[in-house]
């Protein structure tokens, strides 16, 4: 079906125009021809963005697991659905076929039913990247329970806040997890979290690391014996299109996490459609997204999007640096991966290492490379393109958010010509708008402003769990009848979008609005620089001035720092202009990052402003220890 699978630029424009002219018809055809419905919808779209209330496929009935599993059993029953690649390369990979996935999901669903979980109940999942994680999501969806996955690197405080916010009655976890050469005591973290979660009555524990743990009587149960006894089939609960599928808290780069609620039908259609097009998935391809299922990228593009397309998706337990920095490339060679989707933070970390890690492996199976999570800077883009893609694989720089459910702006491989640092064009059905400070839409090209979406799309979140007012205030109040993304972007002369960073991070220097991404991109061009982050600090004359935190590559450390400072400002002057020169440049060995690997600029801002007594919530930081080092080295 041509609407579903775009093959060239002309077709993209044709389909895109159609999707804007008549969005309902566009999304209706896609839904009609590519999914299994138990009852057809009464209305494709109903919306009022002032409230905001949005429903897609209203009146339709379905179960998403029938779409992700059951319907593939006849045509692809013995095809591998999930390849599980363990943390330790010497442990055997596991290939789970669609038939086996069906049985595992049904058994798990029956266990949940036995434990009293009912349609609409919230289930907290705090598991490492093992098959049970994907299976548990689908098992919830099978019986209409709402899953709330919490990334298994979060602390007990972050966990109990999320459990209580969603009022979960049951937690699924494991005895522990592997992370490189370390193990993490997940069960211990859960025990600590549950001290302040009175409503959790049951904890199901998967065995992964065989550590000695204490099981609390009447509350904690080993999962495996229950699965062994469970019946192998489970009738799917038929759900309404707009019933919630899951709650997922945003990554926490900017402040208190928000429990975004996604509903079944629209999310399914949107993730399936975007997966198919952005990764140009073909029947026997092996697709690998390195994200954790604890993030939206894992929900949409490890589990739901790929499985709805009957794809083979890799589930990787490990980390890019264990046993060495060749691990990603080894896995690509081993499973002959065709599409590879990762984050700029991983690319930058790997690009810092010697090249022979990637040169050792045969990467010729690769067809498409993807990036998500942060702006990918030009240097990292080229490294990825040259050394991994061998200049032969289109790079899809995909811009989207937890709130959007799926990819919004991205090249379509072989159709959209790519340019480094540009997410390029909106996918069909996505209508971006750039807004100026007065709340007016900037028309035409060569403009830069705040990125909004001016028409509903099926994958959009419907609310924040338990706090619809916050949902409205955060996303729909800045500009009337538009979803405000919180990001800034520019549209170039050809209509391509470049994300310039978060609007909160925009710094006004002498009256000029400066986005963080283009400046960091310029700094990272310096051969001695591995990574950088800039923030503003108050300045008597300019209003604000720029403070740069810069990580050097190994050889950069031996250079005279003042010379480096001059060279960095030279590059900024060449790329952007003297207005963007940095007043202060601090060299550091690390930057504060969220657990999803994003730079947390608000902490750097406090340090630059010398307001270190109140750093705010740092519980979602991956590397809290770096904060002290940076404070000690701060330039006053
Ligand atoms: P929080 O909303 O809690 O502060 P977060 O915004 O980091 O956390 P996510 O929903 O995981 O949570 O991330 C979405 C954000 O990541 C986008 O708004 C954007 O700032 C950034 N982002 C994602 N992909 C890209 C990309 N391809 N290019 C530039 N920025 C991106
Ligand atoms: Mg966000």
UniProtKB/TrEMBL annotation:
Signal peptide start and end residues: none
EC number(s) reported in the record: 6.2.1.1
UniProt keyword list: Acetylation, ATP-binding, Ligase, Nucleotide-binding
Acetyl-coenzyme A synthetase N-terminal domain segment(s): 12-68
An annotated Gene Ontology molecular function: acetate-CoA ligase activity
Domain AMP-binding enzyme C-terminal intervals: 519-598
Ranges of residues in domain AMP-dependent synthetase/ligase: 71-463
UniProt keyword annotation of Transmembrane helix present: no
One Pfam family matching this protein: ACAS_N
Keyword field contains Acetylation: yes
Enzyme class: ligase
CDD domains documented for this protein: ACS (cd05966)
PROSITE patterns: AMP_BINDING
Domain of life: Bacteria
InterPro entries registered for this protein in UniProt: Ac_CoA_lig (IPR011904), ACAS_N (IPR032387), AMP-bd_C (IPR025110), AMP-bd_C_sf (IPR045851), AMP-binding_CS (IPR020845), AMP-dep_synth/lig_dom (IPR000873), ANL_N_sf (IPR042099)
Family: Belongs to the ATP-dependent AMP-binding enzyme family.
Name this polypeptide is given: Acetate--CoA ligase
Record organism: Aequorivita marisscotiae
């Amino acid at each position: 079906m041509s609407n579903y699978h775009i093959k060239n630029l002309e077709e993209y424009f044709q389909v895109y125009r159609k999707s804007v002219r008549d969005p309902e018809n566009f999304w209706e055809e896609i839904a009609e021809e590519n999914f299994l419905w138990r009852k057809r919808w009464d209305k494709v779209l109903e919306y009022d963005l002032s409230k905001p209330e949005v429903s897609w496929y209203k009146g339709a009935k379905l179960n998403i697991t029938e779409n992700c599993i059951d319907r593939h059993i006849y045509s692809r029953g013995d095809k591998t659905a999930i390849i599980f690649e363990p943390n330790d390369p010497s442990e055997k990979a596991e290939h789970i076929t669609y038939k086996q996935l069906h049985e595992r999901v049904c058994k798990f669903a029956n266990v949940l039913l036995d434990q009293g979980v009912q349609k609409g109940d919230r289930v907290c999942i705090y598991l490492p990247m093992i098959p049970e994680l994907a299976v548990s999501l689908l098992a919830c969806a099978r019986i209409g329970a709402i899953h709330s996955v919490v990334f298994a690197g979060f602390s007990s405080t972050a966990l109990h806040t999320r459990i209580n916010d969603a009022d979960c009655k049951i937690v699924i976890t494991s005895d522990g997890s592997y992370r490189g050469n370390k193990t993490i005591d997940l069960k211990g973290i859960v025990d600590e979290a549950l001290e302040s979660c009175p409503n959790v009555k049951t904890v199901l524990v998967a065995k992964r690391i065989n550590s000695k743990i204490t099981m609390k009587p009447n509350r904690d149960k080993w999962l495996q014996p229950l699965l062994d006894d469970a019946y192998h089939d489970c009738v799917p609960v038929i759900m309404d299109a707009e019933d919630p599928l899951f709650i997922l808290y945003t990554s926490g780069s900017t402040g208190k996490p928000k429990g975004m609620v996604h509903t079944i039908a629209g999310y399914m259609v949107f993730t399936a459609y975007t997966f198919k097009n952005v990764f140009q998935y073909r029947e026997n391809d092996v697709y690998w997204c390195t994200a954790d299922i604890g993030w939206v990228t894992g929900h949409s593009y490890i589990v739901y999007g790929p499985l709805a397309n009957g794809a083979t998706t890799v589930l990787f337990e490990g980390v890019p640096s264990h046993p060495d920095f060749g691990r990603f490339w080894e896995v690509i060679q081993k499973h002959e991966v065709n599409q590879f989707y990762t984050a700029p933070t991983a690319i930058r970390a790997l690009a810092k290492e010697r090249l022979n890690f990637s040169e050792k492996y045969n990467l010729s199976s690769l067809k498409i490379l993807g990036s998500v999570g942060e702006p990918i800077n030009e240097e990292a883009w080229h490294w990825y393109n040259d050394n991994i893609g061998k200049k032969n694989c289109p790079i899809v720089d995909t811009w989207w958010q937890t709130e959007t459910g799926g990819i919004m702006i991205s090249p379509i491989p072989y159709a959209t010509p790519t340019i480094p640092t540009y997410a390029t064009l909106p996918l069909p059905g996505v209508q971006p708008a750039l807004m100026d400070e007065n709340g007016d839409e900037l028309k035409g090209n060569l403009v830069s402003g705040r990125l909004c979406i001016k028409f509903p799309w099926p994958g959009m979140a419907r609310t924040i769990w338990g706090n619809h007012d916050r949902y409205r205030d955060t996303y729909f109040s800045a500009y009337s009848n538009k979803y405000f993304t919180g990001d800034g972007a520019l549209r170039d002369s050809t209509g391509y979008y470049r994300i310039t960073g978060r609007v909160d991070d925009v710094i006004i220097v002498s009256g000029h609005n400066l986005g963080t991404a283009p400046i960091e991109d310029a700094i990272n061009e310096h051969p001695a620089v591995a990574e950088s982050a800039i923030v503003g600090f108050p300045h008597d004359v300019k209003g604000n001035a720029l403070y740069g935190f810069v990580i050097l590559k190994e050889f950069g450390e031996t250079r005279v720092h003042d010379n480096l400072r001059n060279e960095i400002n030279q590059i900024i002057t060449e790329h952007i202009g003297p207005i963007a020169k940095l007043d202060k440049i601090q060299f550091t060995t690390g930057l504060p990052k969220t657990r999803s690997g994003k730079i947390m600029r608000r902490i750097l801002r406090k340090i630059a402003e010398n307001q270190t007594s109140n750093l705010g919530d740092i519980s979602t930081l991956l590397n809290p220890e770096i904060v002290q080092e940076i404070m000690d080295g701060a330039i006053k």
